[in-house]
Amino acid sequence: MVAVTINGQTAQAVDGTSLFDLGEGLGIQVPTSCRKHGKCKECIVEVAEGMPSLSERTEQERHLKGNFRLACQARVKGESKSATGGSRADEGVRPTIRCHTMRRANMRIERHAFGLPLGRKAALEPAVTRDGERILIDGDVVDRSTGPIHGIAMDLGTTTIVLRLFDLESGEQIADSSFENPQRFGGSDVMSRISFDGEHRGLLMRTLAGYLTRAIAELPVEPRTIYEMVVVGNSTMRDLFFGQNVYSIGQSPYRSITEIEMADGKRTTTSLTSTGRRCLLPIHPQARVYGAPIISGHVGADAAACMLAVNLAHEDRLIAVMDIGTNTELILGNWRRILAASCPAGPAFEGGAIACGMPALDGAIEDVALGSDGAFQLGVIGGTAPEGICGSGLVDLLSELLRTRRMNSMGRFEDAGSRITLDAAHDIYFLESDVNELAQAKGANVAGLQVVCSAYGIDFDEIDVFYLAGGFGRHLKVEASRRIGLIPNLPDSRIVQVGNAAIEGASIALLSRSRRRELEELVTRVEHCRLETHPSFFDFFVDGCQFKAVEQESKLAADERR
Length: 562
Ligand code: FES
Description:
- Helix content is 26%, strand content 23%.
- By secondary structure, the protein is of the alpha/beta class.
- The strands form six sheets. Strands 11-10-9-12-14-13 form a six-stranded mixed beta sheet. Strands 24-23-15-16-17-25 form a six-stranded mixed beta sheet, sandwiched between helices. Strands 2-1-5-3-4 form a five-stranded mixed beta sheet, with helices on one face.
- Helix 7 crosses helix 10, helix 8 crosses helix 13 and helix 11 crosses helix 12.
- The longest helix has 25 residues.
- The chain is globular.
- The model has no long low-confidence stretch (mean pLDDT 90).
- The site of FE2/S2 (inorganic) cluster has 12 residues, from loops.
């Protein structure tokens, strides 16, 4: 017998039982469209412990690497061999397997937006309308029905996905839904997804469609009453969803196929349009699926949607929007001029590449305070025992170490050790090498800020509103972020932790045709700053790696350097 834990629930399994059957027995919904025949590739699980206690990979699993398996193919085999060659059962070691499906229920995902200047109800003017029994999209009849008319806004992120369901006649939001992007088995960042898609064309898209189908089926309306869907996301996620070839986004000069076609005169916009049927979704087959336009290969439709959400086209004030992630996106400007940049920050602030790092799941340390006695007080998501540290906890930790002088501005621990223990009982610690990873991620963000402000010809203190967008930005402590130099040294009154501005922008584009046109026009006016070509980029980066308040590189000094 083998103890198998799936999504936190445990069962005893006899040899030969598949993880899928065990999951079903535990009442866990394992995604499937092929009923365990190894064809749909949707039943993926990530095995955290006990890979040797599972059967060999089958032919149907050839696309999977690392600890990912298909639940319908992976079967329990209790007699795994130990390092000494004997069976682990012989040695009194009881084999255990711990795994989870790709839809972990306890992931903290930001669904809301806060502190925005304009409500989305300002103009209810959807593309889908009714004329008696006729349902029309931009004036073309697509159905005859007296039933309701619904639409979906979707923020399709590399890590997480948020859906909002609207009644398109009243503009009311009926429901929302969020889950982890199941494409994680193809790598955690866009570059690895691009490379995976090159080897297994279409598989990421089909897997996502399977998960979306289930998420839509769980919404409290008949899916065929959904006549439009607006999709925002980074350029890679958006293009993969629409079945586009994403190879060119992974190669210099990092352009989406839609940008290339637009430059060649083959299209007039980088937005994409498809139908419910072609996107393999259970919504009305003639429903329009609209992928919002992108700004560049690495500043996607999610950043464009943020511009709509913060009403940038009508702002006179100088606005900055920063969405910190593996690829931090930056927008600066107002109705006169807009600059955008992307900073390749890497996964450190999402807990990747950090010894005890983890995503914002239950068990992640998100608050850290260091008492005068040197003891850590830790706030843990879900109030459970700590399992690791997520991004906002890492920012807190760095700030506390800096404040109490246990770490200097160069990121060196002052007690000459290279390891700091946060929770001995649960073996949670922080390494000096972790600081290096975070320093580089921060350096990329700061360099981006410096380049964009320098290109705009402003000092940081001229920014009137600094929107911190995204789930990570929402949960950061502003004071800690300023202390370590992750964000500029602006007063609290100018910093707005806006949450998921991208889903708000997608919602606005769904509910208003004129705002959607505004978005299409807005992206054509954005000047894309390529950080690596700026003469001072490297100096900005090195300076940004230090843990100190971000000071503006004076324009004069920057000019002199040039
Ligand atoms: S259930 Fe379809 S591949 Fe496993």
